[in-house]
Amino acid sequence: xxxxxxxxxNSVLYKKATTYNLHHIFLWxxxxxxxxxxxxxxxxxxxxxxxxxxxxxxxxxxxxFNIYFLFPFFLQKRxxxxxxLAITLSISLGALLEAAVFTVINTIGPAFKSxxxxxxxxxxxxxxxxxxxxxxxxxxxxxxxxEKERLAKELAKLNTETELKYLKSQINPHFLFxxxxxxxxxxxxxxxxxxxxxxxxxxxxxxILYEGSEKKVSLTQELKYxxxxxxxxxxxxxxxxxxxxxxxxxxxxxxxxxxxxIPFVENSFKHGLGKDKAKGYVRVEVDTQxxxxxxxxxxxxxxxxxxxSQQKGYQGGIGLINVRKRLNLLYPLKxxxxxxxxxVEFKVELNIKLT
Length: 355
Fold this sequence. Notes:
- The chain is α+β, with helices and mostly antiparallel strands.
- It contains 12 helices and 7 strands.
- α4 (47-75) crosses α7, α5 crosses α7 (119-188) and α7 runs antiparallel to α12 (318-330).
């Protein structure tokens, strides 16, 4: 469905028309005027108004019987033979009813009235009713298709939102576990920095609870959140880690889905430094140009203590799996994610078109 069609279907005018069935009235008025135009030539009396009303009324009866009874009970259930027999019988009865009505009322001449039950009249009347039934059925099927498309889109949107919430719920506990574990290790060492880290963690949690529930946040806010996490980890690892952060370009006017970048940072610390006592590094680079965001993060691989990350073809833990799903849901065909791994380094490059 195009944007124009979506706007029309969701418009107030369309909703009011369907609520009060105004489109039905409009359709039959136009159809009535059509029959008035067809029957009026050569008739001096206003009887063609009555004749047109009789024809349209019988056509409407057959059409509505087809739409509201035959369609749901036979055609939708794919009972095609029964539907064909039922619609044929309905059209035939409609033609006989029209002949019977014109026999009773005095709006046609004696010469015409004598041929009301002739095969020619019944066949032509049946053909006219068939045309009307086919047109109304086509309109019904188009509307039915539009409704199914609308419901399918709403369901897809609901499923997407549900899946995103589920993925976020996986990210939050994962992050909390890592952060609290860091603070716990410092508390065991009676480190005076533990209170400051708790304060930083409270700021991060505030971001998760409030901004994290939004569909989009400022890129500046997202990066500030990311920097807070990096600072927390820098304190925990101390001198055995080199941290380098470079941010280029305007971030204040850009928006991004919240908590989209943090899994890359979590992954770097969890699988990068590990239990290795040797000095490691984490390098983060953010670059924005127009509507494009380029984010890259690289970390050293430990000699020991993180055996999983040493395996060939390793592509990150649950954080990276989740972020791939979120990217596919939030930025379909508008992002590229490259994960590279060597013997000494793990690197992730993400490009997103933020529009």
